[in-house]
Amino acid sequence: MQKLICGKTKDVYLQPDGHLLLVFKDTVTGTAGKIDPGANEVIGELAGKGQGSSSLSIHFFKLLTEKGLPTHFIKPGPEPNTMVVKKARSFELEVICRKQARGSFVRRYGKWVTAGTPLPSLVEFTLKDDKRGDPFINEDTLVALGILAADTILALKKIAQQATSILKADLAARGLELLDIKYEFGEVDGRTVIIDEISGDTMRVMQHGRILQPDELCSAYYNSPCRQR
């Protein structure tokens, strides 16, 4: 298979049938030695993280697909830590849906909110642009720059909020609280779909008043050591 992308936490291969194989790695990103899934620098590895990320991604994508939401998911991959997906044209955006004020939101708007302030599934957009620090961008600018049409933006927001509601309920059934989550979207056969992964690398989750690290979420979710399901 042809390797298309060697990413920070995943490698992407093109299969002979035209679908993509995602290979999840144990690498973690962060700054100043502290793990931060939103950071752009790889700072090391955590044994089992790739397994946890693939297990959760497969579970959550199956769940969203069963609920009728559009995704690129096809099936678990043939090897551990892998997932087969449809090839999509990425919008090169991160779509963040916030249920609480946390992280960068508090740093930006700390005059008006404190950590934990409830938010109504608030949607924000950032560009996937490592060189410029993944800058925030508003809806009008997305349209003005020709990145997305206004109707596509509305569709993204609706899908992100619906997905967040589904995932929040699923996590709550396991005693876990979803605080915020980021999605990536793309286009498959003219249809807007959720792509990439849905794991501890893409969401902030709290258990017993403590925010879990990306490598902890899978074990907390299943209440047992993680394995690809």
Key features of this structure:
27% helix, 229 residues, D-amino Acid Aminotransferase, Chain A, domain 1, Phosphorylase Kinase, domain 1, seven-stranded antiparallel β-sheet, globular, alpha+beta, five-stranded antiparallel β-sheet
Query: Can you write the helix and strand succession as a string?
Result: EEEEEEHEEEEHEHHEEEEH
* Number of E-state strands: 15
Whole-number radius of gyration?
17 Å
Structural class: alpha+beta
| Count of alpha and pi helical runs | 5
Textual characterization of the structure:
The chain has 2 domains: 2-85, 2-Layer Sandwich (Phosphorylase Kinase, domain 1), CATH 3.30.200; 89-222, D-amino Acid Aminotransferase, Chain A, domain 1, CATH 3.30.470.20. It is 27% helix and 34% strand. The model has no long low-confidence stretch (mean pLDDT 92). It has 229 residues and is of the alpha+beta class. The strands form 3 sheets. Strands 9, 10, 11, 12, 13, 14 and 15 form a 7-stranded antiparallel beta sheet that branches. It has a 5-stranded antiparallel beta sheet with strand order 1-2-3-8-7, covered by helices on one side. It has helices at 49-66, 104-109, 139-144, 150-172, 214-222; strands spanning 2-6, 10-14, 20-24, 27-31, 34-35, 42-45, 73-76, 82-85, 89-90, 93-100, 118-127, 177-188, 191-195, 203-207, 210-211. The chain is globular, with a radius of gyration of 17 Å. A hairpin with a 3-residue loop joins strand 1 (2-6) and strand 2 (10-14).
